[in-house]
From TrEMBL:
Lineage summary: Bacteria, Bacillati, Bacillota, Bacilli, Bacillales
Highest taxon in the source lineage: Bacteria
Annotated ranges, domain Inosine/uridine-preferring nucleoside hydrolase: 4-302
Gene3D superfamilies on file: Ribonucleoside hydrolase-like (3.90.245.10)
Stored InterPro entries: Inosine/uridine_hydrolase_dom, IUNH, Ribo_hydro-like
Molecular functions (GO terms): purine nucleosidase activity
Keywords: Glycosidase, Hydrolase
Protein name: Nucleoside hydrolase
Any one Gene Ontology cellular component term annotated for this protein: cytosol
GO terms, biological process: purine nucleoside catabolic process
Amino acid sequence: MKPIILDVDTGIDDALAISYAVNSPELELLGLTTCFGNVTVEEATRNTLLVLEHLDSAVPVIPGATKPLFVSRVKANATHIHGEDGIGNTLTNLPTRKALSQYAPQFIIDQVRSKPHQVTIITVAAMTNLALAIMQAPDIVNLVDNVIVMGGAVKRAGNVTPHAEANIYADPEAADYVFASGIPITLVGLDVTMETLLPKKDVQAWRSKGTELGTLMADMTEFYIDAYEDFYPGIGGCGLHDPLAVGVAICPDFVTTEPLYVRVDLDGFHSLGRTIGDLRSKPAHEPNMQVCLKVDTERFLEHFLSRVV
Ligand code: BDR
Ligand code: CA
């Protein structure tokens, strides 16, 4: 089993990623750390606990950053995509379990140090928690097994601006700090996640199971697919951004990667948060990450659907 920390801003596709991860025997979930992003960190923590309750999972939840590292430039929520509550307006009750009283960056440091060279961190939110962890404990850079980042768009358009993807845009300084730190990274960006569209017919199959989990996931995901349809008319489904990052942790060969040197634009008026890969034949720097550029959509979708609900 691969020890995993999953860093979330739950969020509908985060909820799907959590369910997929909990139901995957290859992964040992050490904890779910939460961050601001789709919703506030308090809401993300609440949503994470609720999803885990539906899955009968006792995985610890550890709250993290409430705001970006240095500059709050953007309104940190995506209620138009994820609903007022972040989970497609399905919220009816509060979780019975509480989050740990630890702080996410410290949890990351402790777990990585206690299992040297074993832990994979999957970030599917702004990268603030991981950046804070590295600032406080730079030794973890050489102690993690890998960091799988859902974020960025290297050879593709952004989704919150023409160039920027939401998780990077939410805290560009944090993302760039992590990218420059030397930590091993696999970047699962819009280059591949926008190739993983989930159509409504698959969601209807969850509903027809008649289970509480199936109904909740179907209600949330239908909201998400409708939001995608408004945003990208005719698209016919929603991008499985966060689930693909979990999928890559389970089966790295769902994707094809290219080693590249990638940094984040921190100055651009029109391109703030853009993930810029050095695509020249003779780049000026050694690659700092593996960038996913192709995905075996059919195989990933089949695997995801066999586990998520
Ligand atoms: C990412 O942004 C968030 O809204 C989603 O949960 C996902 O992590 C996609 O750009
Ligand atoms: Ca997310």
